[in-house]
Amino acid sequence: MLILDTALRRRAAEHRPIRVGLVGAGFQGRGLVNQIVHSTPGMDVVAIANRTVPTAVRAYTEAGLDPIEVSTTAEVEAAVAAGRPAVVGDAFALLAAENIDVLVDVTGAVEFGAHVTVAAIERGLPVVTMNAELDGTVGPLLAERARKAGVVLTGADGDQPGVQANLLRFVQGIGVTPLVAGNIKGLQDEYRTPTTQKAFAERWGQDPHMVTSFADGTKVSFEQAIVANAFGLTVGKRGMYGWDHSGHVDELTTRYDVEELQALGGVVDYVVGAKPGPGVYVLGTHDDPKQRHYLELYKLGKGPLYSFYTPYHLCHFEVPNTIVRAVDFADPALTPPAGQRVDVVATAKQDLRAGHTLDGLGGYDTYGVAEAGPVTRSEGLLPMGVAEGCVLTRDVTRDEVLTYADVTLPEGRLIDELRQEQDSLFS
Question: Which domains does the chain have, with CATH numbers?
Answer without folding.
Answer: 2-158+317-329 (3.40.50.720), 160-313 (no CATH), 342-425 (3.90.1210)
